[in-house]
Amino acid sequence: MKAAVLRWAEPKDMKAVLGLIQELADFEKxxxxxxxSEDDLLEHAFGxxxxxxxxxxxxxxxxxxxxxxxxxxxTWKGPTFHLEDLIVTQKERGTGLGKALYxxxxxxxxxxxxxxxxWVVLDWNTHAVNxxxxxxxxxxxxxxxxxMDQAAMRRYLAKENENI
Amino acid sequence: MKAAVLRWAEPKDMKAVLGLIQELADFEKxxxxxxxSEDDLLEHAFGxxxxxxxxxxxxxxxxxxxxxxxxxxxTWKGPTFHLEDLIVTQKERGTGLGKALYxxxxxxxxxxxxxxxxWVVLDWNTHAVNxxxxxxxxxxxxxxxxxMDQAAMRRYLAKENENI
Lengths: 164, 164
Description:
The structure is a homodimer.
Chain A: E1 4-8, H1 14-27, H2 38-46, E2 53-59, E3 62-74, E4 78-88, H3 97-112, E5 116-122, H4 126-134, E6 138-140, E7 143-149, H5 150-163
Parallel strand pairs in A: 4-5
Antiparallel strand pairs in A: 1-2, 2-3, 3-4
Helix pairs in contact in A: 1-2
């Protein structure tokens, strides 16, 4: 942990943030899935209406980890935060940086008064599952994420319009 | 579908919206889970910084269904929408209202240019799972939702502080 600083991400960090995002996509076996650009991240984080917030871990001038999150809303509990990505670059894993970023995010969320934090984990990533459960989080077994991409949305709408 | 109108929710609808939220919690076998109030919904939907948007289905002057959603962010794809609740009251199920609300949400999301929409479904709710898959959505089998509530966040932070 020596010489690691945790701080809010700045515009100059978005290149490194994109690098970490790509590294995670590679790990999750979806290397082609990242279509976002550095300019997108700059606009979405620092444009008029920020779409996410991000802490980074910096070590010897390099961004080596990040915790990226945004507000969500539970109709049961009220305002929540969603932790979209918690990433530490491969060569810095096992040094406690991931836990430090996780703790910083939780401390910030608690201070903001959100009633819940949430995120998703791959069920085969047992290291992560165990880490989260040991920290007191609940891994929900019976909920499934459902997604529809832009192309599928358009196919669905075209079909519905035919049926009218 | 006769006499059903789909429109944006207004402040006067929040009492009925809360009723639908409670009805869904009962169906999902968590009747005690709803801690939010009508005043919370009013503040969160129509206060300075809206935390969600909502379409309602109105029939003979009664709100009988809703589609409630908010923006999210994918570090792979960019801006997305999350459909938090798609609810039709018990006695109006099977009338096509759920599909009409779903279509209205998808059409709005597509028009806004989001690159993905997503939501969650209970894996034992096979009726819903089939409906979503038939519409062209993907039900992801290997992702799990993780949640930590406010009490667990405080326990975690207290323990971490002891360790420092």
